[in-house]
């Protein structure tokens, strides 16, 4: 861009001091500063808008690629389901072949007695879950100053408020 060093800025400042004068120079400098600030904000807004539009285009492309991927997966699932249904029909058609074998399997398992396996009876663990075993006694809590009851903040203030 424009290469302006310190020496060039000093020269511009000296010329501005001579041409504009010392009375009007601060006002002109403020005006130039505000205009430069507005220009910088405008440029940054334009850059942000361009980047937003580029991101929007990228998101649209990503959406399209995701939609095509979904359609491809959908097609593969439909083809796999149709293959599965075909295989299922083929497997269920062979049921008649297995009927003859199933009678021999049934006779083999008829000698198995399911009542011979006994599951162990339920045994109560002997614990009373309502009682805390390691609880600190109330007399110890009272002596140590531990709170035993929950109290709201307003109730605590009312309790410790000095009597009039």
UniProtKB/TrEMBL annotation:
Residues 95-129 are annotated as: Disordered. The keyword Transcription regulation does not apply. It is a single-pass membrane protein. The keyword Transmembrane applies. It is found in: Cell membrane; Membrane. Residues 100-119 have a biased composition (Low complexity). Its main location: membrane. HAMAP family: TatB. Part of the twin-arginine translocation (Tat) system that transports large folded proteins containing a characteristic twin-arginine motif in their signal peptide across membranes. Together with TatC, TatB is part of a receptor directly interacting with Tat signal peptides. TatB may form an oligomeric binding site that transiently accommodates folded Tat precursor proteins before their translocation. The Tat system comprises two distinct complexes: a TatABC complex, containing multiple copies of TatA, TatB and TatC subunits, and a separate TatA complex, containing only TatA subunits. Substrates initially bind to the TatABC complex, which probably triggers association of the separate TatA complex to form the active translocon. This is Sec-independent protein translocase protein TatB. The lineage of its organism: Bacteria, Pseudomonadati, Pseudomonadota, Betaproteobacteria, Burkholderiales.
